[in-house]
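PROTOCOL LOG
Step 1. Enter all chains and additional molecules of the complex.
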Amino acid sequence: MSESPPVVALLVTCLVDLFRPSVATAAVRLLERRGFRVEVPSQTCCGQPNRSGGDDDGARRLARRLIASFAPYARVVAPSASCVATVHDYPALFPPGSDDHAAAVALAARTVELTAFLGEQGPDPGRAAVAGPLIAAWHDGCTGLRRLGLDRQPRELLGRVAGLELRDLPGREECCGFGGAFCVEYPEISAQAADHKLDEALATGAQLLLGADLGCLLHLQGRAQRRGLPLDTAHIAEVLAAAIADDGHGREDG
Amino acid sequence: MSGAREAILARIGRDTPPAPSANVPVESAPADWAQRAQRFAACATAASATVATADSPQAAAAGIADYLERQGLPPRVHVSAATPALDGLVTETRLQLATGGLPDDGATVVTGCLAALAGEGVVVLATGPGHAAESVFLSATHIVVVSPGQLLDSLDALWGLVRTLPAPLPRMVNLILGPSRTADLGVPSRLGAHGPLRVHVVLVAPVEGA
Amino acid sequence: MDVKTADFRQRARAALAQPTLQRSLQGMRRAMPALRSAALAALPDHAALRDRARESRDHALAHLGHYLVAFESRVRAAGGEVHWARTGAEAGAIVAGLCERAGARRVIKSKSMVTEEIGLNATLAARGLQVTETDLGEYIIQLRGESPSHILAPALHVSLAEVGAAFERHHRRSRTAPLTEAGAMLVEAREELRAVFRAADVGITGANFLVAETGAAVLVTNEGNADLVASLPATHIVVTGIEKVVATLDDLGVLLRLLARSAIGEPLSSYTTLVHGPRRATEAAGPAAFHVVLVDDGRSALLGTPRQEILRCIRCSACLNHCPVYTAVGGHAYGSVYSGPMGAVLAPAIDGLATTAQLPAASTLCGRCEAVCPVAIPLPRLLRDWRGEALRAGFTTPAWRRSLRLWQWLAAHPVLYRFVLGLAAGGLRLVSVPARRGERRIRRLPLVARGWFAVRDLPAPEGGSFQARWRARQP
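Step 2. Run joint prediction.
Step 3. Record the structure below.
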């Protein structure tokens, strides 16, 4: 094909940028494998902490910046449901009929969460495998599950990874207790919710707890570390990208 | 405090609304009596009531006497909210009918009803000259006899019936689903909190070919 | 019980350390969602019913004055009286006046959150009236001198042993053995309260709904106590919020179909009673006097604001039962008679933000409350809304205001933002220690994020921000 590949912009998200750049690297790899060229415009925060904290003025200022940063791109993909939901909620920050509002509506329509986007592209043509057997539990992030309707997409993506067995948590609709500033403001309540989640994950026999939101995962991993639990956490993008890599090796014997 | 009335109304406004939204009937029981009775029994027994059927008011009365014997309860019953469905009580020699006064705790009351709702397993009683609500709520055992025509489809049908009642409406319309219960002493719920401990419903079947 | 919310954090911590409360809460957390979802799954079209329920509440609220006046005129036509109260104090004075008019000494009540809200029992007790709660849970907490910890199960926090102890202390009976078994407690309470029912001069109930079409006050209970409260005394007083009115019996039916399913996972409660006025001339029984007291107490101020949607609430308690915060700390931590997500939205409207600003803050905004709400109240949005009000009105801590401002400022300066991010990524890596499987973690940091490190480690950053890596990789 002589056409240049379609472009998607990556909304990195602050936590990934700071804590786990490998999640963004993995996201880039997954998008490139599906034939996209990835661009990463200069960006900061979507304003979620301000929006959640009731600081709509602050959120509005950051929304304007982000809208401008991503204005040139037809698709914006982010490895975080809560940041995507924040962008989807941008129109509520501006008066209907204003230019800002129109731009917010447009960006909201173009912005999509990573697993939802990968799901839209149809099944991955190649093989994906991890050195298994690996038992993983899936943590449905609240924003992903309830605001973005992420349910079957991550499960389908992970379901195609050979060597990985995915288990659902009985309390899958329950919050893990992260909640942004909440987890710092109300640590004991937050820890109780995390413990329910971690104990359930261990009870499924999982060695690995997977999710699509780094906030939840850092909180859960940090709590697991503090309790000395034999449970690792990873972002779904990391596992999917690693599975492609394993696939490369696996092909040699085929 | 009429000042309060005017002040509140001034804040909330008094405009005349458009007609409220039309109803969406969501549960419907079959028109056939036997199927309806089956539906009623399923719902009522799920709520810890017991349900029997009888071919006539006389058979219903005999069934009540049997029920009391089975439960080891005395044959003395208070009667309230009488309807033709209770006509068999006077001729059933195994029953003693208490007259006047309210039942004491431990007593049995036998009532007719305004309606029974197949979709919910609910019996509906209305207060009036022949029925005080407390005669049901003070008793320990409540036996209800339902005439064939009183077995309605569901709540929606009940509202239709209430709208045809002559004004003024009964002081109390009681929808009853099974016995009294409470969850305040832990799980599982316990029966017989303040109201009846047992609810037994007798559905009188329509006469064949009628 | 001290009804101030300012110390939510402290009370929450205490609640987490109470084994009895934790057992009840954890039992409920596991049981209630399954019961609710099974009951709703049995409906042919839950989503349509929920839409219709929401519509019927919105319709009534949009024309609240019209429907209240219609309700009032039907109650009057049936021989009852309707009273209006702007505040809780006004409502208390009206009810006290009605008791006086009835020459009452003994008052019985069925469970009513509005009367808890306005502190009615204390008002009546101050006038020398003897007030007895008859809902078993309310009766238990009245004996113990407490406030409800759940809007539907007020004694959720009390263990069976504590109920037995309260009964032994307050019921004058000769005993041969201690009261330990729930069945025996139920029998004893039933017997004790029978005498109270028969001796009462005035019965006070709330109302789950008011129906404008027929003038009905609708009472929903499982115990049957409300029906006795509304039947035996010579005077029946209904105390309820102005928002409880619905237009028609059809609306009532829609809401009834969702109420008990959402609340307890049952199709309907045991008793649903429509009360239309006092005893008729042809009747030998029933109260001769019937009053409805319509209480505003901050509700009308919500109309026309973004927070109006909370007035749709039908007090089913599904949002409490599904809330990670409520199920961790219970109702008393909220310091308001209403708890959980609906309480955290209502309490600031009723009590003012000055003492309640912590309640909307104490939420993860996980959205499960909105998902299970039978009338689709956008509780997370309303909580966030209150957070904004609290921020603007200065009811949050200066530190919190500073951090929001600082973050916004930093994020508005990309060069500085990237510099600080890079510095943080490197610095945190530097102070980290090994964790399992080659990971690294930070156990504690001086001065910052104490709440984070109080209960968890911080997984160490990989070092260097993604954007820095990306720019380095680009040609």
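Step 4. Note key features.
Chain B touches chain C through 67 residues (CB under 8 Å).
Chain B has a mean pLDDT of 92.
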